[in-house]
Amino acid sequence: MDFTALIDLAAQVTIPADGTLSRTIFQDAQVKAILFGFAAGQELSEHTASTAAILHVVQGEARITLGTEVLAARPNTWVYMPPQLPHSIVALTPVVLLLLLLKSAGE
Question: Per CATH, the architecture of 9-102 is what?
Answer without folding.
Answer: Sandwich (2.60)
